[in-house]
Amino acid sequence: xxxxxxxxxxxxxxxxxxxxxxxxxxxxxxxxxxxxxxxxxxxxxxxxxxxxxxxxxxxxxxxxxxxxxxxxxxxxxxxxxxxxxxxxxxxxxxxxxxxxxxxxxxxxxxxxxxxxxxxxxxxxxxxxxxxxxxxxxxxxxxxxxxxxxxxxxxxxxxxxxxxxxxxxxxxxxxxxxxxxxxxxxxxxxxxxxxxxxxxxxxxxxxxxxxxxxxxxxxxxxxxxxxxxxxxxxxxxxxxxxxxxxxxxxxxxxxxxxxxxxxxxxxxxxxxxxxxxxxxxxxxxxxxxxxxxxxxxxxxxxxxxxxxxxxxxxxxxxxxxxxxxxxxxxxxxxxxxxxxxxxxxxxxxxxxxxxxxxxxxxxxxxxxxxxxxxxxxxxxxxxxxxxxxxxxxxxxxxxxxxxxxxxxxxxxxxxxxxxxxxxxxxxxxxxxxxxxxxxxxxxxxxxxxxxxxxxxxxxxxxxxxxxxxxxxxxxxx
Length: 476
Fold this sequence. Notes:
The protein is mostly beta strands and 476 residues long. Helices cover 4% and strands 53% of the residues. It has one helix and 40 strands. Strand 34 (404-408) and strand 35 form a beta hairpin.
C-alpha cells in the first residue's frame, strides 16, 4: 500500500496556498456552507421529532433528502434522517425524524431538503416544490445537553394555487407532561434516557447517560430516577424535572450493574452486578454504597418484595436465586432453579414468586414463605419478559419470535389470551391509572402503550436505540 509523499517546506506552503484559493472559490459559489469542523468533546445532540401529518394532508406524500440545524452564522450542522417518507397516517404518531451531534452555540433554526412532493390518488400528481425550506426556531446548544425539537407541518400554509407545494413547518420545544404522567425508557444502544408522556406518548426530553444504560428505578415522590449504567460500572440519579443527571455513584471496576430496585420509602437501592456476581446495598439519597453481598454467577435482574425487606437476585449464570435480607445486608437462602433464571414477579399477596428462564421452557413458582418450588408449567422456549398484574394475578409473558404477549390464568397456569405485538419485547410493566401495559421493543426502538381491555396500541414513542427497560409514575 502506497504512502503519502513528504513535501519540503516551500512546496507544502505552496500547496496550502493553492488549497485556500480553491476553498475560497468554492465558498463563493455555494449558497450555504456545511460546518465540518471537528466537534469538541463536550458535544451535545439535537433530536428532531415530527408530529403526524394533519388529516387535511391525507393525499400528500413528501420525500426528504436531508435535515440540518442552522447555526447563527448560517452554517449547517447535518442531522441523520431516521426516515425520509412523509405521509399522513404512516404512522399516525410522533416519530424521531432526525438526530445528530452538534457543537455548543446559538442556532437560528432548521433546514429541510425536499426531494419531491406529490398528491396521491385520483387527480394527483407531482407538485412543484422548493429544494430546501428553512424553519425558524431560536435555540441554544449547551455542553452535553441534548436539544429536543418538535416539528409539525402547516399543511394549509404549504399549498398554493396550482400544483405547487411550498412547505411550511413549525418548530417548538416539546411540551412537558404533568408529573403524574411521566414515563421513562433507557436506550442501551444510544446511551440515553427518554422522558415521555405515558398517555399521549409524546416525547418530553432526552437525558444522556453513560455507556449501556440498563434497569430503572423510579422515586415518584422525589421526582427522581435511578439507572444502572452497565458500561460505566455506576449508578446515575436523574432529576425528572431538571431532565439531567444529578449525581453519580461509581461502583467497582467490572461490577457491570444491570438492574436496580428501590425500597418503597425511597431510601435504599439494591443493584444486580452481573460482572462481579454481587449485589450492592446503596443509600439512595446520599448515593453511597453501604454494603455489598456476594450472590450467584451473573445476576441478571433484581426484585424487591413490596415491603422492601427482601431482595431476590436472579443468577442467570449459575441457575439460582439469591434471597437477601436488605436490612441485615445478608443472604437468607439460595434457591436452585431451571437453567438460566432471567426475571421474577410476585403475585398480589406476595406469597408466590414466578420465574422465567433463558434456557428452560418452564415457568417456575416458588412459595416465598418456605422458599420451596411448588409448581412448574411449560410456557415455551425463549422467554424475554414477565409481568404479574398485582390486581388480578394474571401473568403476562413474552417470548422471542412469537409476535404476541401471552396471558396466563393464575389458577390453571394455562394461556387464555394473547395480545399481538409486531416485535420482540424486552420489558413489560403496567400503568395502574390507565389500566394499560407499557412495553419496550428493542428492534423498533420504541416504548408502546397497550390498553389491557381493548388490547390495541394507544401510544407509541421512539425512545432511542435498543431500549430494554421502562418505568413510569403510577406503575402498578
